[in-house]
């Protein structure tokens, strides 16, 4: 950091709209546009930060204020309460049963959750990955949730010339991944296409079980004229995943034991590894019809569809001393249409459009079945824990975004109108018969009115954003931004079902709690600067956020019950710094630092007796490190690049009372890549990737709520892992 600050005297000329941060090597480019409140990861491949190329979340984890944790070095079996284990600025974007992910593709919300959609895209097929944190333009981050941040992946189009990319990776724990992509090149009449496929397999690094995933992708582009182009993309994926066993705080406190403890190999135990797995099959198809209506205007129409079928099996403890195996069958789809028109009115760049999106449950779940295990090692059906109807979330989202520049100023702002309807939920009283979900519904079971919400819940609200940028000179600018984000939680349904007797005894129906749902909103303020010289750049940012209707598990005196509600207030603020420095042609440096505070702004009601309030005001929320620092060097010696990487994360807590402390950790990785054109290939790359070089034992994933310790669970980080890759580009 000292040499970066010392380098600020070396300022040089650069265009006002140029990127503020640029780290470039043969393997990856990291860039950012703080004036536009976004950052990008681009390049031929992002193999340095994510050698397995299966997890978008591993690629972006060098960014400031982004806490990404993992138990699986390859990203195949990273499962924590059915959602991604990372936070933007201390905010867990998908907590509370949010039925969407933080990742969009081509601006479309085609990665739903729960289910198998997290790793269905091979990152070699992605051209750009853009990260939005805090304030984001109205035409970005479309979908059911924007709180915390959003990731947008752009697909690598078919190339103009014929090409073949082949990659083979092997690694620790029998890891193997084969990737192949063939580009047709120009076929005549503006037609181009590509097809790609990958197959991946890895044993777990502890315990029994393995994971595999097979992906296919097809893309086609047809240019009918200078003004009309049609693109279409199809993705198929199928995977079987054996996750790692979640551990208690007492278990994780002994790290040496935690690094060997996993599921049982005894088939008569409910903790058997093969009773804890998930299997999903996914289809995704999208299209983009682009019509240029003028020299500076165009219309894009993007229909999309995603189908997800599979199941989760896992060991649960519904009551102390009782263990069962639960099967959660998942069969849902989502579909929608984005129409967007961009044009220029005088000196104003204008973009407006409309998104229609509908998405079937789950979440919340529509089917849970419980099993016991016989002495012969067979699963014995016990009961239906949940059986409910098929229903859908529905979103209508028109937006408008404008940008205007005058002199040394640029103004960008927009409005996004969100009309979001939660699904109705009809709960059935199903007999203890082990049949399929469709057969169960066909048996015409009786309706349990007290556990149902037949009336849908709709939220309607306008979300503004505004950014003012002042260009001080050609290489320095400062921006001030304001924007609002949103999220809606749906985990109240399984919570109610699990505690239904207590609610019903107190005269509380599920419809009452469904009606009491509120949309959590966040008001974000940001002040940032970007400076750039001939061989360095620096981007400091400070931010402040106010969260209203934040979800927490609270005591409701009106209903005399404790459950997840949206009436807590929270605040966040922090400092971010990104910098890069290139002291010579062969040495490049990148670093980021962040200080993030995210906390409840009030004491929280706990229950009706004993200690009715818990003074958590000002305390950091669980699983949110206050300090993070990350750095990466790339030194080139002829055809060889050596890239050491370091990541530091400070103390975290597994509970809001800060009684379950997790020490900070520093982890080192190393990538060595030899690359040159040879033997008729455009390039041949040979890479050796070392993850957790010093075999550091530390706690990675924490699965918790932002309030209390509702069965908080923990996972150790992956030990030392070695990967070797050979890639041929023809």
The CATH superfamily is known as: TonB-dependent receptor, beta-barrel domain
Q: Whole-Å distance between the termini? A: 40 Å
Q: Work out the helix count.
A: 8
For the record, the count of structural domains works out to: 1
Biggest pleated-sheet summary:
22 strands, antiparallel, barrel
**Assigned CATH architecture:** Beta Barrel
Query: Which percent bin holds the helix content?
Result: under 10%
Note the beta-strand portion: over 45%
Q: What is the gyration radius calculated from CA atoms? A: 25 Å
Strands, count = 40
Q: Determine the CATH topology.
A: Maltoporin, Chain A
Overall 3D form: globular
GO molecular function, one term: siderophore uptake transmembrane transporter activity
Main location: membrane
Protein name: TonB-dependent receptor, putative
Membrane topology: Multi-pass membrane protein
């Amino acid at each position: 950091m000292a040499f970066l600050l010392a380098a600020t005297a070396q300022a040089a000329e650069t265009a006002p709209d140029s990127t503020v941060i640029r780290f470039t090597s043969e393997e990856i480019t990291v860039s950012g546009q703080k004036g536009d409140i976004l950052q990008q990861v681009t390049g031929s491949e992002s193999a340095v930060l994510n050698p397995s190329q299966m997890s978008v979340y591993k690629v972006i984890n060098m960014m400031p204020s982004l806490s990404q944790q993992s138990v699986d070095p390859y990203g195949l079996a990273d499962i924590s309460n059915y959602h991604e284990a990372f936070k933007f600025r201390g905010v867990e974007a998908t907590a509370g049963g949010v039925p969407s992910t933080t990742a969009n593709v081509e601006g479309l919300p085609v990665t739903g959750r729960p289910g198998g959609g997290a790793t269905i895209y091979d990152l070699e097929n992605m051209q750009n990955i853009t990260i939005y944190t805090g304030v984001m333009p109205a035409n970005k981050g479309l979908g059911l949730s924007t709180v915390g941040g959003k990731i947008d992946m752009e697909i690598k189009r078919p190339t103009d010339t014929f090409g073949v990319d082949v990659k083979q990776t092997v690694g620790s724990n029998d890891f193997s991944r084969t990737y192949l992509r063939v580009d047709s090149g120009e076929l005549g009449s503006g037609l181009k296409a590509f097809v790609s496929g990958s197959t991946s397999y890895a044993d777990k690094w502890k315990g029994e079980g393995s994971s595999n995933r097979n992906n296919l992708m097809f893309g086609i582009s047809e240019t009918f004229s200078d003004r009309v182009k049609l693109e279409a993309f199809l993705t198929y994926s199928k995977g079987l995943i054996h996750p790692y066993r979640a551990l208690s705080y007492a278990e994780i406190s002994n790290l040496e034991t935690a690094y060997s403890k996993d599921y049982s190999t005894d088939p008569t135990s409910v903790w058997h590894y093969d009773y804890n797995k998930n299997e999903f099959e996914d289809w995704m198809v999208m299209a983009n019809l682009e019509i240029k209506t003028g020299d500076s205007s165009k219309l894009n129409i993007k229909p999309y569809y995603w189908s997800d079928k599979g199941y989760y099996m896992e060991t649960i403890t519904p009551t102390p001393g009782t263990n069962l195996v639960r099967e959660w069958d998942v069969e849902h789809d989502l579909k929608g249409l984005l129409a967007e028109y961009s044009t220029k009115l005088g000196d104003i760049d204008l973009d407006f459009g409309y998104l229609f999106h509908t998405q079937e449950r789950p979440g919340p779940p529509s089917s849970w079945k419980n099993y016991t295990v016989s002495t012969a090692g067979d699963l014995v059906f016990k009961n239906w824990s949940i059986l409910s109807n098929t229903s859908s979330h529905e979103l209508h989202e028109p937006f408008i975004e404008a940008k205007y520049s005058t002199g040394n100023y640029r103004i960008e702002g927009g409005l996004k109108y969100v009309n979001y309807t939660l699904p109705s939920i009809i709960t059935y009283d199903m007999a203890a018969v082990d049949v399929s979900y469709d057969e169960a519904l066909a048996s015409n079971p009786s309706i349990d009115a007290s556990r149902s919400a037949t009336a849908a819940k709709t939220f309607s609200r306008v979300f503004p954003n505004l950014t003012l940028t002042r260009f001080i000179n050609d290489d320095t600018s400062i921006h001030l931004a304001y924007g609002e984000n949103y999220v809606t939680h749906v985990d109240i349904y399984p919570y109610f079902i699990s505690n239904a007797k207590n609610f019903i005894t107190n005269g509380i129906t599920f419809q009452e709690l469904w009606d009491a749902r509120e949309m959590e909103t966040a008001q974000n303020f940001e002040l940032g600067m970007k400076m750039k010289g001939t061989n360095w750049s620096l981007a400091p940012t400070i931010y402040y956020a106010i969260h209203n209707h934040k979800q927490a598990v609270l005591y409701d005196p009106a209903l005399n019950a404790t459950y997840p509600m949206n009436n807590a207030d929270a605040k966040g603020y922090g400092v971010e710094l990104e910098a890069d420095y290139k002291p010579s042609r062969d040495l490049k440096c990148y670093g980021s630092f962040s200080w993030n505070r995210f906390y409840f702004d009030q004491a929280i009601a706990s229950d009706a007796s004993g200690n009715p309030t818990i003074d958590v005001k000002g305390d950091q929320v669980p699983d949110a490190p206050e300090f993070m620092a990350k750095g990466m060097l790339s030194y080139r010696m002829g055809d060889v690049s050596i890239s050491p990487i370091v990541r530091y994360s400070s103390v975290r807590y597994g509970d809001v009372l800060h009684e379950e402390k997790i020490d900070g950790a520093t982890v080192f990785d190393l990538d060595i890549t030899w690359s040159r054109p040879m033997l008729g290939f455009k390039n041949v790359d040979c890479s050796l990737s070392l993850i957790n070089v010093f075999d550091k034992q530390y706690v990675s994933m924490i699965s918790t709520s932002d309030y209390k310790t509702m069965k908080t669970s923990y996972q150790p980080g992956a030990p030392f892992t070695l990967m070797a890759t050979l890639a041929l580009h023809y």
